[in-house]
Amino acid sequence: MTKEEAIELLADAPRGDKPARLNPILTQSQAVEIIEKAIMNKPDGTLLDDIFEKRVWQVVKNQRQPRY
User: Fold this and answer.
1) 65 CA to centre of own chain
2) Residue 65: predicted pLDDT
3) What percent of the chain shows pLDDT beyond 70?
4) Is the pLDDT score of 66 beyond 90?
5) Nearest 5°: phi and psi at 37?
6) Deepest of 6, 22, 43, 67, by most Cβ within 10 A of its Cβ?
7) Is residue 68 over pLDDT 80?
8) Which is it for the CA torsion 37, 32, 20, 62, positive or negative?
9) For the residues of 1-66, what is the DSSP string, one character each?
């Protein structure tokens, strides 16, 4: 997954004041913002590491365990 693909997926991620399933201490909006900030620091066209890709899918699907 490239940086641009991740940004497109995160644009459709659930955002709200409900607790995120990934980390119940965070809201859904906060979880998305944290991942977006981490990805934005990467150069354009960069392939994401497996851990970043996993986190993108977890946030997009609001899941504790990612299911690709």
Assistant:
1) 13
2) 76
3) 96
4) no
5) -65, -40
6) 6
7) no
8) negative
9) -BHHHHHHHHHTS--SSSBPSS-TTSBHHHHHHHHHHHHHTSPTTPBPPHHHHHHHHHHHHT-SS-
Q: What is the largest CA-CA distance in the chain?
A: 32
Closest C-alpha to 22, from 65, 51, 54, 52: 65
Backbone angles phi, psi at 2, to 5 degrees: -90, 170
Q: Which tokens in the block code for residue 32?
A: 């998305």
Single-letter amino acid code for the residue at 61: K
| pLDDT tens-digit readout, 46-57 | 999 999 999 999
Using one digit for the tens of pLDDT, what is the confidence trace for 1-53?
999 999 999 999 999 999 999 889 999 999 999 999 999 999 999 999 999 99
> What tokens were used for 33?
């913002």
Contact 15, 29 (CB under 8 A): yes
